[in-house]
Amino acid sequence: MPRPSAGLLVRVGIAVAVIAVLPWVVPSFLVFDLIYVASYAIAILGLIILTGMNGQISLGHGAFMALGGYVVAVLAHSAGVPYWVGVPLAAIASGVAGLFIGLVALRLAGVYLALATFSLAVATPSFLKHYKSITGGFDGMSLQPVQAPAGIPLEGQHWLYYVAWAVTGVVFLLSALLVRGQFGRALRALRDNPIAAVSFGVNPYFYKTAAFGWSAVLAGIAGGFYAIPTAFVSPDTFTSALSITLLIGAVLGGISTFWGALVGGIVVEFLPLVAQQVNAAAPSVVYGVALILVMMFLPDGIVGSLLRLIHRFRRAPPQPALESSTPPPAPVAVAPQSRE
Amino acid sequence: MHDLAQQIVSGLAQGSIFASLALALVLIYRAMGIVNFAQGELAMFTTYIAWQLTQMGLPIWLAFGVTVVVAFAGGVALERIVIRPVERANQLTVVIVSLGLFISINGLAGWFWGYIVKAFPTPFPTTPLQIFGVAFSAQDVGVIVVSVITLGLISLFFQKTKLGLAMRAAALYPEQSRVLGIRVGWMLALGWGLASAVGAISGIMIAPVVFLDPNMMQSVLVYAFAAAVLGGIESPIGAVVGGLVLGVAINLIGTYVEWIGNDLRLAAALAIIVIVLVVRPAGLFGRVAVQRV
Question: A330 and B228 in contact (C-beta within 8 Å)?
Answer without folding.
Answer: no
